[in-house]
Design a protein that fits this description.
Layout (H helix, E strand, L loop, with lengths): L2 H12 L2 H31 L7 H4 L29 H7 L13 H23 L9 H21 L4 H9 L1
């Protein structure tokens, strides 16, 4: 059987659709090649001294790029925060006769102490959430977004409520 006859028969059956698909594919390949060339040119310009931003500059240390939850970095930055008095339970713990220690709220240790307090508050909120009766059946996405919401609640409560757990953790580790 002649191959030309088969391709002509196939072309007549598809009414030229294969030629149209081939032209589209060639156009897409050309656009893709142009895009690659443009990216290569930008990369060459960047290596010649043009400034670019890398993902390590966008992401904070210890966080993933694209992580949109609130954090404690940069929350305390004034000079008074370097020698702050303990709050909440940590302030009540020492009493008046004991010389109270100060807390450097600008340190990484205090930031990590705040994150640990957030974890404890999140555990408390999760247990409280289990006691709430729900009228409808919830799906995976709803549970996931509710969990993210409660993460933000825990972070907000840690920032604003003044429990003092982070202060106690910090003082015990210093």
């Amino acid at each position: 059987m002649n191959i030309g006859l088969v391709s002509n028969t196939y072309s007549s059956i598809t009414n030229g659709a294969s030629a149209l698909n081939s032209a589209r594919s060639n156009a897409e390949n050309a656009k893709f090649s142009e895009l690659l060339d443009e990216l290569k040119r930008k990369n060459e310009n960047a290596s010649n001294g043009a400034s670019t931003i890398s993902s390590s500059e966008i992401a904070e240390n210890g966080r993933l790029n694209g992580e949109y939850t609130s954090s404690f970095s940069g929350m305390y930055s004034s000079a008074a925060d370097k020698s702050a008095r303990p709050q909440g339970a940590a302030a009540n713990q020492a009493g008046k006769v004991v010389n109270q220690k100060t807390i450097d709220k600008t340190s990484k240790l205090y930031e990590k102490s705040m994150e640990l307090e957030t974890f404890f508050v999140k555990q408390m909120l999760s247990q409280m959430r289990k006691t709430v009766m729900k009228s409808n059946e919830s799906g995976f996405a709803q549970n996931m977004y509710e969990d993210m919401l409660y993460d933000e609640y825990a972070t907000s409560m840690t920032k604003n409520a003044g429990f003092g757990l982070a202060d106690q953790i910090y003082l015990s580790l210093v």
